[in-house]
Amino acid sequence: MGNYKKLDDKDIAFIKNVIGDEERVLVGENINEEYSHDELGGTSSYPDIVIKVKSAEEISAIMKYAYEQTIPVTPRGSGTGLVGSSVAIKHGIMIDTSLMNQVLELDEENLTITVEPGVLLMELAAYVEEHDFFYPPDPGEKSATIGGNISTNAGGMRAVKYGVTRDYVMGLEVVLPNGEITQFGGKVVKNSSGYDLKDLIIGSEGTLGFITKAILKLLPLPKRVISLLIPFPTLEKAIDTVPEIIKSKAIPTAIEFMQREVIEDAEEYLGKAFPDKQSDAYLLLKFDGNSTEEIEEIYDKVAKLCLEQGALDVLISDTEEREESLWKARGAFLEAIKGSTTYMDEVDMVVPRNRVNEMVTYLHDLQKTVDIRIKSFGHAGDGNLHAYILKDELSDEEWEKRMRNAMELIYRKAHELRGQVSGEHGIGFAKKPYLMESLPEENIRLMNGIKQVFDPKNILNPHKVAQI
Q1: What is the DSSP string of 200-221?
Q2: Which among 226, 221, 220 has a CA at the least distance from the CA of 292?
Q3: Which of 127, 198, 213 is nearest to 166 (CA)?
Q4: What is the pLDDT of residue 277?
Q5: Structural domains of the chain, ranges and CATH numbers in brackets
Q6: Residue 1 has pLDDT above 60, yes or no
Q7: CA dihedral defined by 71, 76, 81, 86, rounded to 10 degrees?
Q8: Where does the FAD-binding PCMH-type domain lie (predicted)?
Q9: What is the DSSP letter of 460?
Q10: DSSP code of 6?
Q11: Residue 171, beta-bridge partner list
């Protein structure tokens, strides 16, 4: 396992013949630098060849050949990941699915949509809304592909009320590492027919099979959306209010927390002022429903609760313009923080909802302990926190030392609070050491056993997730 064949001219000629269009096959100097890394850029390695595929049949033919020849293959969507999942660690073949971007069917009777993996999240959301439907998963990176979202089980801001990507994937067409095309799941609402292989593919980060088609569940489109921006005197008061909101049973669509310093980064990045400046800490809540009256009844209860807990004010965003202004700022946080420093690394740990306040306080205090800047924001309603460790002007050596120290301490604290290493970004290549430390050896053994069953030659996205 792991003795891979180095691509030669014969292999390249075979691939070009399968594709039949040389413009969709990139070799050597023609491979764009972007294919060597993902959005964060910390893990870098060039593939020997990049193939822009257009069908499951093309992927199948390439996988069969790669399996016979023992050539490593890396799946790739938009490359917006943050943990090196789509980086060709062992070089070889990279299969880019961005041209597989068709909506294949909208089935209004079964409330499903069938799409190719290269469809972008923002394209899918816009398409279904035009038809009065709603696809709830809402990861921050709207230019990510659906295939990538499924591969990492992406979550996003609406997980509080609606759940994550896994909850909306009903069926998958998958090319297995040996090139066979198969289907897992389908349009049935219930299914107790053996092991759920579909759910193994979701979140497997392209290590078990190559997603070529997805059947996704849709909901009727909520008619009204209203957000509340709630300033608090301190971050602690803001975070301490979240469990009270959850206990009130008036579940918002999203509960986000944010601090002034991250808001200021977003303002600079967008060149637009944030709607409120009176506080250092905010909760941003979203509510949806079929009428203004229905939503008002829910948010009125939450607004009163927040004021009782010490909120300074409750600002209601009930126009499309205000709504867009608030959520555009929230959506820009990652890029804004990235632009405020020379380099950064990220942690997207998840803890139980009632331990969020402890984790946020710990992150805030940790900056002094490790002497490095850490900026954080996150999905306070589902416990998924994003912490960004900033390099600034540190030397490479000092950065590596302080960053590693900070990460070890953050993951240790998350584990202590009964949390997990990743809430939605995945493990990829970069976060493997922390997964190994956080899970029992038996769990890691089972994961690698599953990988061995699907991919005995270890050619599909090798050395990712649980593999040494």
Answers
A1: HHTTSTTSS-EEEEEEEE-EEP
A2: 226
A3: 198
A4: 85
A5: 9-99 (3.30.43.10), 103-220 (3.30.465.10), 224-328 (3.30.70.2190), 341-426 (3.30.70.2740)
A6: no
A7: 10
A8: 43-221
A9: B
A10: P
A11: 185, 215
Q: What are phi and psi of 440, to 5 degrees?
A: -60, 150
Written as six digits, the tokens of 19 are 């594709």
User: Rounded to whole angstroms, how far apart are CA atoms 183 and 441?
Assistant: 31
3-state secondary structure at position 113: strand
The burial of 310, by beta-carbon neighbours within 10 Å (0-12 exposed, 13-18 middle, 19 or more buried), is given as middle
Side chain identity, residue 398: E
Task: Tell me how crowded residue 182 is: count the other CB atoms within 10 A of its CB.
Answer: 11
- Single-letter code of the amino acid located at 385: L
* Token duo for residue 31: 């491979």
**Residue found by looking up tokens 């014969």 in the block:** 10
Residues 235-289: pLDDT tens digits? 999 999 999 999 998 889 999 999 999 999 999 999 999 988 889 999 999 999 9
User: Does pLDDT of 41 surpass 90?
Assistant: no
Q: Stretch 30-49: mean pLDDT, rounded?
A: 95
Q: Summarize pLDDT for 198-226 with one digit per residue, the tens.
A: 999 999 999 999 999 999 999 999 999 99
Helix then strand then coil, in percent of the chain rounded to 5, is 40, 20, 40
Q: Say how many CA atoms lie within 13 Å of 463 toward its Cβ.
A: 16
Would you call 88 helix, strand, or coil by DSSP? coil
CB 96 within 8 A of CB 54: no
d(CA 151, CA 424) in angstroms, rounded, equals 10
